[in-house]
Amino acid sequence: MLQSVSPEARRYLTSTEWSTLYGGKKPVNPNSASASFRRLPYDHCALSLQLFENPLCDTEGNVFDLLAIVPYLKKYKTNPVTGKPLESKQLLRLNFHKNAEGAYHCPVLFKQFTDKSHIVAIKSTGNVFSYEAVEQLNLKPKNWKELLTDETFTRQDIITLQDPSHLEKFNIANFHHVKNDQKIENEELIRAKTDPAARLKYINAETKGVLAELEKEYKAPEESVTVKVVADSINAAHYSTGAVAAGFTSTVMAPETKHEPAILDESIVRYQRIKKKGYVRLVTNVGPLNLELHCEMVPKTCENFINLCKKGYYNNTKFHRSIKHFMIQGGDPTGTGTGGESCWGGSFDDEFKPNLSHTGRGILSMANSGTNTNKSQFFITYRSCKHLDGKHSIFGRVVGGIETLSAMERIGTDNKDRPVEEIMIESAQIFTDPYAEVDEKLVIERAAALEEAERQLKEAKASIPKAQLKAFKQSGVGKYINPKAFINKPVESAGEESRFSQPKKAKTSSGYSFGSFSNW
């Protein structure tokens, strides 16, 4: 059993030993009667414990500040010092007078007030005097006229604000609002909770300038609400998210116990259902061009072209480059060959198919400035140019308007391959849009899947049989308990017991006996 070690062996004192045995400082409860006296100065508010600016007092001479006492009375309706009921109409407005140095003093004797001065106020006027002035000029000569206004008053109208011989009312530890921790949150406290800069009270001019500049430029990040997307029967992948395995094998991952299928990107779901080609007509000032788009083979490139045509992106744009026996290029709204963007903004990746080649006249392909830099510009070939295979994404061909393409090729160009006559795309007409048809089918499929899920849920709820308990004759407690189950069964007779008893085995001796060795 462990024994306590003596202080001599330890060579040090614990906090408990020092406070209880050797005269050290003992912890004192601030709300207890033995708490140390905490003096409140006469020019401080008894509620906010700060210098008052608009002083008010009650009939007992407790001084409060106007901005502190009014909200407190609205909430608690009690005296902050005594805890007695108090209303705002019971408060008296005090008129303190200051000398040339800005200190409070008696307006009659011109003596400056201190923490040892005897200070009184006249209830009828609210003027504050030293008790010496009132005693010498009012009480002794029995002159019951106020020293400044000559208004009549009585002895009961004299309110003692501070008496040096009775300072118990200035003990902060005895205040009712201090004992019960009653507080009113003013604007500064509320602002300090929300604005960290409100706590900075003493900062230099440079810091103030930096904070002011930061306040002008800083923008709080917008709170984005993330909604968890749940996989449905259409976009659910055949593999899981891997969250269960990651939560089981990694200590930094949140544990998961339910397998959830991964969610396929919406473009993958849509592109898998596209089985048709798209058809678009470009109306130019030379003539129409009917284009067939390979939507089932290069879905992303064709969707970009169809969406730009829908938005009118190509309307009133020029074919800015034409090279005879090679191709004609357009799709740049700036007409310089350096502009344009995809329907999603920026650029997108290439789509190459081995069965699509720049063979023959009228091949529709994407113009780019390098790998995966497709935007809005495209070109139409005048002749075969197989050297462009694997570099530019083919997404269609001209199926009507070959004579228009020939007319474009006959227009001359300058030394920068710009047509001398403007070749304009006036408008784009969409005949067949496979993407819009797939989107409509997906909406119908999702609605049908939702209805089917709701129907199955209702059937599952309806198929659950309700438990029906058999009620017996008795009522109240034990209504559903069969009383026959507790009837004592008769004890079996000794004869029956012997009939079913097992036969006793013959005892065998544990000693050694001689015999032959035939079993060897």
Automatic annotation (TrEMBL):
Q: Would you say which domain of life the source belongs to?
A: Eukaryota
GO BP terms? mRNA processing; protein folding; protein polyubiquitination; RNA splicing
Q: Quote the InterPro entries the UniProt record gives.
A: Cyclophilin-like_dom_sf, Cyclophilin-type_PPIase_CS, Cyclophilin-type_PPIase_dom, Cyclophilin_A-like, PPIL2_U-box_dom, Ubox_domain, Znf_RING/FYVE/PHD
Q: Region labeled Disordered — which residues? A: 492-520
List the catalytic activities from the record: S-ubiquitinyl-[E2 ubiquitin-conjugating enzyme]-L-cysteine + [acceptor protein]-L-lysine = [E2 ubiquitin-conjugating enzyme]-L-cysteine + N(6)-ubiquitinyl-[acceptor protein]-L-lysine
Q: Which keywords describe this protein according to UniProt?
A: Acetylation, Coiled coil, Isopeptide bond, mRNA processing, mRNA splicing, Nucleus, Spliceosome, Transferase, Ubl conjugation, Ubl conjugation pathway
Any single GO CC term annotated in Swiss-Prot or TrEMBL for this entry: catalytic step 2 spliceosome
Give the UniProt subcellular location, in the record's own words: Nucleus
Q: Which Pfam families match?
A: Pro_isomerase, Rtf2
Specify the enzyme's EC class, one word.
Answer: transferase
Q: Which residues form a coiled coil?
A: 443-470
- Compositional bias per record (Polar residues), positions renumbered to this chain: 508-520
| Domain U-box stretches | 38-111
- Family stated for the protein in its record: Belongs to the cyclophilin-type PPIase family. PPIL2 subfamily.
Q: How does it assemble?
A: Component of the minor spliceosome, which splices U12-type introns. Within this complex, interacts with PRPF8/PRP8, EFTUD2/SNU114 and PLRG1. Interacts with isoform 2 of BSG. Interacts (via the PPIase cyclophilin-type domain) with CRNKL1; they may form a trimeric complex with HSP90.
Q: What protein name does the entry list?
A: RING-type E3 ubiquitin-protein ligase PPIL2
